[in-house]
Amino acid sequence: MKQKILDAGLAVLLVGAVISMFVMANAVKEVHAENEKLQKENNELLMDKINLEIDLENITDAYWQLNNRLERMEGEGE
Fold first, then answer.
1. Per residue of the chain (78 residues), what is the pLDDT tens digit?
2. In sequence order, what DSSP letters do the residues of 17-32 get, joined into one string?
3. Residue 67 to residue 78: CA distance in whole angstroms
4. DSSP codes of every residue in 3-68
5. pLDDT (0 to 100) of residue 78
6. CA angle 57, 60, 66 (to 5 degrees)
7. Which of 2, 21, 25 has its CA nearest to residue 13?
């Protein structure tokens, strides 16, 4: 009788372990999918950052060109 109770307890533990294994495998799969999504989003944000840095350089260059042209025009007017 004692052995049957121990065997039943072991069977319950094994079933619980198998169920836990499947639950954890599913959780790992979801984490991997979320990680891939975040990596893609990160790459897109990095591209946006690079494009904004290029835009900033272009705007800065245009500002200095206009500023220099204005100084030349003011110098010619005097």
1. 989 999 999 999 999 999 999 999 999 999 999 999 999 999 999 999 999 999 999 999 999 999 999 999 988 766
2. HHHHHHHHHHHHHHHH
3. 17
4. HHHHHHHHHHHHHHHHHHHHHHHHHHHHHHHHHHHHHHHHHHHHHHHHHHHHHHHHHHHHHHHHHH
5. 60
6. 140
7. 21
* Nearest-angstrom CA–CA distance, 37 and 50: 20
Structure tokens at 59: 């705007």
Q: Coil, helix or strand for 69?
A: helix
Full-model pTM? 0.64
